[in-house]
Amino acid sequence: MASSDEPRPARRGPARAVVIVVAGIALIAFASVASTGLLPARDRLVVIGDSLSTGFGTSAEESWPVLLARAEEAGPGRLEVVNAAENGSGYVAPGDEGDTFGTEVDQFVNGDTKVVLFFGSDNDFGNPPSQITEAATTAFQAARAKAAPDARLIVVGPPSYTFPADSELTSIRDALRTAADRTGSDFVDPIAEDWIAGHADELIGPDGEHPTPAGHERLAQLLEEVLAR
User: Mind giving me the DSSP string for 135-197?
Assistant: First the structure.
């Protein structure tokens, strides 16, 4: 990952990939109750993120949210995974369609949402940590208010591709941890857990920024483990 004093690659491409995947077990449930007209509500998991979650550089179908939904399909859960991520967005930084993580929450989180999973974002490079903390706190509070009363909020900080991590990246990480603590959200630190840095050659594509298909597979596996915690 580029240091803070080097130009960072722009995250461009299709502005948003909103992918809704219903776990296959839901189809079984549908078939069993269709004759009665009693269709059970589906639990929603909403992904709030940037181009690390849209499949930019590969495809939306290979993105980790879609792979996560397939893993849910093979398990006992029945989740509708809604990928609200937008290229270029952050808590402060607007994405290609002008959305931040906060406006992604406003558009996609509702009363059926049982999990809101925030991922990233290094697009907030250059913004004061205090501003990132305030924007993240507002986004988490909005998610808490809009989601189901028993919803779980998971905040995953930005991953690092190098060791040691860039100091500005760790500042973003620390700002998000503060906001998560304020709002009672679960915080996950990919930097401390070395999600990517030790395997960047395989997991990150030639642009030096976005995951390869193998990178998305690793992220899906790691986030499945986070959900199981």
Answer: HHHHHHHHHHHHS-TT-EEEEE----SSSSPPHHHHHHHHHHHHHHHHHT-EEE-TTTTTSSG
In whole angstroms, give the CA distance from residue 200 to residue 11.
18
Per-residue model confidence as pLDDT tens digits over 166-204: 999 999 999 999 999 999 999 999 999 999 998 999 999
Q: Where are the domains of the chain?
A: 19-228
CATH number for the domain running over 19-228? 3.40.50.1110
- Per residue in 203-222, pLDDT (tens digit) is 999 999 999 999 999 999 99
Interior angle at CA 21, CA 100 and CA 190, nearest 5: 50
The set of catalytic residues is 51, 207, 210
φ and ψ at residue 140, rounded to 5 degrees: -70, -40
DSSP 3-state assignment of 118?
A: strand
